[in-house]
């Protein structure tokens, strides 16, 4: 695996508590037309504080979120009644129980990648203007998890989360296939070779596919050209790694008449690599944090 593609990961900006939701346009629109349940927001803030500390007193929690001590006490006791927290008799500090882990059971690694990548993608789109997307493998195709199409004035075709692209007919798919483990790559190509879909038929020419993948591995990124009537659409994608684990592909689309491939490789590839590294590092940091929390509130802990 080439050095550039392995992504020696850099430090990234941590995710805020509740306030980070305001960055989401849909959430902002919702909040402007619907009165929020303040008690729920306060309860979530209390959970956040307890998640950041190995136990906290009522006063410490109240000070952290700027709430009256009596209000904070009621919220903490409510969490205790619901089974998400307990108060230790030894030091009167509130701690989380193992039940909080159930809140994230449906949030898989691909969802974490999407959550982490969103703000970086929006910043990159604002900088480069062209649409950016992050995609993960889903069955025998690539699933767009997040895209900035609706933020980019240069996105001719607006694609949203949930849009699927073929593995061999997209830069995202080629980047994933080039850098995934050999066993997975061979299995995917076997499946695609027997597919009846036109976009999967190139898999039947294994030699030609390997030539493309070898070139992508050598460069550290993949390129795909989609013919269009007025101007061909070019896409460049880089792999997103967390250490040696391949998580997703990060891609940028642009018109071939507006930006030459040579210029795109000089301007866009370094920025895509930098963002993919930050996403990968944030993913690692999040998992280390989750592991620490799990160890702190291990299954043997019970309410006193």
Key attributes of the depicted protein:
six-stranded antiparallel sheet, Arc Repressor Mutant, subunit A, 10 helices, 304 residues, two-stranded antiparallel sheet, Beta-Lactamase, single chain, alpha+beta
Which helices and strands appear, and what pairs or packs with what?
Elements: H1 3-6, H2 25-33, H3 38-52, H4 58-65, H5 69-82, E1 85-87, E2 94-96, H6 109-128, E3 132-138, E4 141-147, E5 164-166, H7 171-179, H8 182-193, H9 206-219, E6 222-226, E7 233-242, E8 245-255, H10 261-296
Antiparallel strand pairs: 1-2, 3-4, 3-8, 4-5, 6-7, 7-8
Helix pairs in contact: 3-5, 4-5, 6-10, 7-9
Class by SSE composition: alpha+beta
CATH architecture of the largest domain: 2-Layer Sandwich
| CATH superfamily label of the largest domain | GAF domain
Strand order of the largest sheet: 5-4-3-8-7-6
Mind summarizing the main beta sheet?
6 strands, antiparallel
Straight-line distance between termini: 52 Å
Strand and helix order: HHHHHEEHEEEHHHEEEH
Question: Which stretches are low in confidence, meaning pLDDT under 50 for 5 or more residues running?
Answer: 1-24, 299-304
The CATH first-level class of the largest domain comes to: Alpha Beta
Number of strands: 8
Proportion of beta-strand residues? 15-25%
From the alpha carbons, calculate the radius of gyration and give it in angstroms.
23 Å
What is the average of the pLDDT values?
A: 83
Which of globular, elongated, flat, extended, rod-shaped describes the shape? Answer: elongated
